[in-house]
Design goal:
single chain, alpha/beta, Rossmann fold, Four Helix Bundle (Hemerythrin (Met), subunit A), 4 domains, 27 helices, binds iron/sulfur cluster
Length: about 650
């Protein structure tokens, strides 16, 4: 690793991409290499700018083992595949075989596309045009991955009718199986040295281990998790159960579609699917109309069923009715049998969600937009991950910029069940004490005091005047975001962007391309957002990002720790908020030349004993209580100031 990453090593000598030796990167590459060589787990906190991707990819290639690289999002998968993999192939491993695997709904289903071409059920000229373009593309594409269809909106309804999700897929019995893009994806993965997935696909595979194409992932010997701080949340989703009104609507839609395809759509059968739709609507309408996530304990479920037994039974019977009708058909087309099997699975899941009472699960429901979601989520995934991941494989690498609390990995290790592992905290690549100033105002009321919001609005206005916009204002809830936005909108002359007024990616692009813009946002902008340069020069956080204690999952996790005789505040709530704050503040400094101000308006960080943990966990930012110092710092960091200094220096 030293010969590649070290001072005067291959990368520095060849000056590939203006490469500079980074001590943290070399240290990380050596630690990952050691894990691959000696078959042990490793956990590494690598701050922004460490160059962690190459530091795990090169040791992975050198290991000669088949390694799965799991990233947090599809766009990170794309970035690895389009930027880092070609680099490796050009300079280190021309024969390297890499496969990208994504969930089925990312791929085109050829069978559905042909069926749609034969029986045109397109809605409007726009769909006709989009479908024509997709058909042309289908002839050329090697992957069938919708990421190549840049014209297709994220929420395209047409795509949901032709993607390769399980619903009507007949697997090996499909006449298109040989040409199917999923078959090709699985084949590439079987031949690959590196398989790039996202956490959702990884945990779907770990939880299920089967699909129409066999296991989702082929055999592998090691895994690298990038953005490993997201593992607990994603694993909780896949080791739990969830059902929503959409599942019933999709089932009815797919049943109709399968009947059309197989020419079985008799009026009696079509009435059956219509009944599923109607009964699902009345059943889900019985849930309280308020948006939000609520506990659904055994007692609450029993009370709900007592009041709505008729609607529940009617829904279950409508599914049973369709299954019986399909089973009674003389011809039994595979497409219909599959729908019947799904219907049976849905009934089982519904029964589990209402009748089971597993100790390690928290039961809840959520109303969001037009959806009602019923779920059972594991309270603690550590035992599941210990058995299925950390004891089943000998080399698992976890990395992220936010894994430690107070310099220790204890929290994340406990949450994930990672008992035996070599830990490394790598030296930061940036000079945070010079590049960033942390502003902590002293005269703020407590965040729970009614006087907090007006004072926070004053602080935000003053800070934004000093930074000339160019800021993210990050909030822990929509209510706080909207409240503060309303309080400051008429007092500022900068372009203001508000989360929820456009899709996330659109808002981000607007922010990047609008001079002096300010974005008001909540949790989804706290991570995975990258705006290097002067465009983002200030990040304001209104309060310490503690998870909402009334959220049923948080409440159940707190209760479980209490029952275990532990201190949930110190062992769970504080560490979780520390990692979230590190993520939020991490948006500011993205390169060696970035400079800017971080502001936290919540004085608990200064007053409360636990505030020390937050401060000890953050990089060593220079700190101030003085707005005038913020002004001086920003003036010195501003582009105009730098231009002047540059001129003066000749
Ligand atoms: S195998 Fe399944 S996904 Fe592939 S083309 Fe056939 S039906 Fe579609």
């Amino acid at each position: 690793m030293a010969a590649i990453f070290g001072p005067g090593g291959f990368l520095e000598k060849s000056m590939i991409g203006g490469y500079e030796h980074r001590p943290g990167q070399l240290q990380m590459a050596e630690a990952v290499h050691d894990a691959f060589e000696n078959h042990h787990h490793a956990i590494l906190e690598a701050g922004t700018g460490t160059g962690k991707t190459l530091a795990y990819l090169l040791p992975a290639i050198c290991s000669g083992r088949r390694v799965v690289i799991s990233t947090a999002t599809k766009s990170l998968q794309e970035q690895l595949y389009q930027k880092d993999v070609p680099f490796l192939q050009r300079h280190f491993a021309p024969q390297l075989k890499v496969a990208v695997m994504k969930g089925r709904s990312n791929f085109l289903c050829l069978a559905k596309m042909h069926a749609m071409a034969d029986q045109p059920v397109l809605r409007g000229m726009e769909e006709v045009d989009a479908f024509r373009q997709i058909k042309d593309w289908a002839r050329l594409t090697e992957t069938g991955d919708r990421a190549e269809l840049t014209f297709l909106p994220d929420d395209s309804e047409l795509w949901t009718r032709i993607d390769a999700r399980r619903d009507t897929c007949t697997g090996q019995k499909c006449p298109e199986f040989q040409q199917c893009f999923l078959t090709a994806m699985h084949q590439r993965a079987k031949d690959a040295d590196l398989i790039i997935v996202n956490h959702h696909l990884f945990f779907a595979d770990l939880a299920l281990k089967k699909d129409d194409f066999g296991s989702i992932l082929p055999e592998y010997s090691a895994v690298v998790f990038d953005e490993a701080h997201e593992m607990e949340d994603v694993a909780s989703d896949y080791f739990g159960q969830q059902i929503s009104n959409f599942r019933f609507e999709e089932l009815a839609r797919d049943a109709d579609h399968a009947m059309r395809l197989t020419h079985q759509g008799t009026p009696t059968l079509l009435r059956r699917t219509q009944r599923i739709r109607e009964r699902s609507r009345s059943f889900f309408d019985a849930f309280p109309p308020r948006d939000g996530r609520f506990s659904f304990s055994r007692h609450e479920r029993e009370a709900f069923l007592e009041q709505n037994r008729e609607a529940y039974d009617a829904l279950v019977n409508s599914l049973k009715g369709m299954e019986t009708e399909f089973a009674a058909l003389t011809q039994k087309p595979e497409e219909l049998l599959r729908v019947a099997r799904r219907s049976f699975e849905i009934r089982q899941e519904l029964a589990f969600l209402f009748e089971s009472n597993e100790k390690n699960y928290v039961y809840w429901f959520e109303r969001r937009n037009k959806g009602v979601f019923l779920a059972a989520t594991p309270i603690d995934v550590s035992q599941i991950l210990r058995e299925r991941l950390f004891e089943a494989f000998d080399t698992i690498i976890l990395t992220s910029a936010t894994l430690t609390v107070g310099g220790r990995f204890e929290f994340i290790r406990q949450r994930l069940g990672l008992d035996h592992v070599k830990e490394s905290g790598l030296p930061p690549e940036f000079h945070y004490e010079e590049q960033a100033l942390l502003y902590l105002p002293q005269k703020m009321p407590d965040v729970r005091d009614p006087g907090f919001a007006p004072k926070a609005a004053d602080e935000i206005v003053e800070l934004l005047e000093l930074s000339q916009g160019r800021a993210f204002c990050l909030f822990t809830s929509y209510a706080q975001m909207n409240d503060l936005f309303e309080r400051v909108r008429d007092r500022l002359d900068f372009p203001l962007l508000l989360q929820g007024t456009a899709p996330r990616s659109v808002l981000l692009e607007r922010f990047k391309n609008t001079a002096n813009a300010v974005l008001f946002a909540t949790s989804s902008f706290w991570q995975g957002v990258d705006v290097p340069g002067d465009q983002l020069s200030c990040v304001i956080v209104d309060r310490l990002p503690f998870a909402v204690p009334s959220d049923p999952i948080v409440a159940a996790r707190v209760r479980a720790l209490q029952e275990d005789g532990r201190n949930p505040f110190a062992e769970f709530q504080v560490p979780q908020a520390v990692l979230a704050l590190k993520q939020g503040f991490g948006r500011l400094i993205r390169s060696k030349t970035d400079r800017g101000v971080l502001a936290l308006l919540d004085t608990r960080i200064q007053r409360m004993p636990y505030g020390k943990i937050f401060l000890e966990s953050l990089p060593r930012y220079h700190r101030t209580h003085d707005l005038a110092e913020v002004g001086r710092f920003l003036a010195a960091a501003s582009p105009a100031h730098r231009r002047k200094a540059f001129k003066e220096a000749g």
